[in-house]
Amino acid sequence: MSAPTMDEAAKVFVDPAAYADDARLHAALTHLRAHQPVARVESQHYRPFWAVTKHADIMAIERDNNLWLSEPRPLLATAAADDLGKQQLEAGMGLRTLIHMDDPHHRDVRKIGADWFRPKAMRDLKVRVDELAKRYVDKMRDIGPECDFVTDIAVHFPLYVIMSLLGLPEEDFPRMHQLTQEMFGGDDEEYNKRGKSPEEQLAILIDFFTYFGQLTASRRAQPTDDLASAIANGRIDDEPLSDVDTASYYVIVASAGHDTTKDAISGGLLALIENPDQRDRLRRDPELMGTAVEEMIRWTTPVKEFMRTAAEDTEVRGVPIKKGESVYLAYVSGNRDEEVFENPFRFDVGRDPNKHVAFGYGVHFCLGAALARMEMNSLFSELIPRLESIELAGAPQLAATTFVGGLKHLPIRYTIR
Ligand code: HEM
């Protein structure tokens, strides 16, 4: 493939289709890292921003959370969607999740749910997660010898785990699944069932708010031992969280908690199919599971970006950035940075060190990182020893989305014990 022009390269960030085409995406990112690691992107429907593609710059920006703020532009959205989000918040029906906030409010809100994701909580949850992993690998055996690994397995396992942690009833899981896909995958036709008009997008939010409003009321009236109760009854300076902050907390946990992990699991399996030497290595040496999981997360980088806005005039890699201008943290690019990773385009289950930025860095570092790691560890520890053969049964298909995404279909043929 010939090298893209600088303009073509920078356009990938605003083109959902680029994320469904790995070769095109990585050609553009590799080009930018080498020639314009801080690139200005101007595009019709988006306010301008600076795309930052080097690992060291992404880390430095995330580390300095007084200079680089999440407000008012925490992620890439069209100017129209940004404006709509602002109007919705003003009307009391908008999203203000942890990723939208800055300290000190961010720190106080994060604390409310944090205990549920600490190592001790993870150890308590492990038996249950192992049980679920076995259940889904058994299901794979039962529906074999072919399945769509994404829609039959990878979607359900993390959804089940996070809904259980929240304490939601099983009959509500499909509804949460659909809402999350609509909210995160709206760029992709297959996931966008309602359309993209402001009214249609607002309808998704209203559904979330209605559901979670009822949940808050019930957990305040009758607290139970689950994350939903911790959120509903959380207090800052002895005041309950606002309705917007409460509902937004559920939304971020419910959505970030499964779509991301599903992408890492299914993309991880595809990498193992495409690299049989690495699959054999992992089967022979299960001790490698920890590094293998980390490599799957680096390899897939399910969260493509977050953004920060400069609180003061500053510079990145010598490029002046004015107060109020935004930078786009290109995690996908950071995780293939040749200066940090030896052979970054090689999938290596023993990669160590592996300082990827797939979970971000600094005060917003992914709250659910330990949970995601544990889920993947459980699932692949159950699957790999039981898998006698596996191959593709059709073409894998990536979702066209600029935010959270990965495989939407992975047809496989296999034999499993
Ligand atoms: C492989 C799976 C996952 C990936 C790749 C991932 C990635 C990320 C990234 C990149 C961020 C932003 C970090 C930053 O700005 O520095 C983040 C934040 C967050 N993630 Fe995850 N995540 C995953 C799984 C989970 C799970 C299972 C949960 C469970 C609830 C979760 C909950 C959150 C929350 C609540 C935040 C916001 C944290 C804050 O702003 O303080 N994530 N995640």
UniProtKB/TrEMBL annotation:
Q: Oxidoreductase: is it a keyword of this entry?
A: yes
Q: Which cofactor does it need?
A: heme
UniProt entry tagged with the keyword Cell cycle: no
Annotated GO biological processes are:
cholesterol catabolic process
Q: Which UniProt keyword terms apply here?
A: Cholesterol metabolism, Heme, Iron, Lipid degradation, Lipid metabolism, Metal-binding, Monooxygenase, Oxidoreductase, Steroid metabolism, Sterol metabolism
Q: Which family would the database say this protein is a member of?
A: Belongs to the cytochrome P450 family.
Q: What is this protein called?
A: Steroid C26-monooxygenase
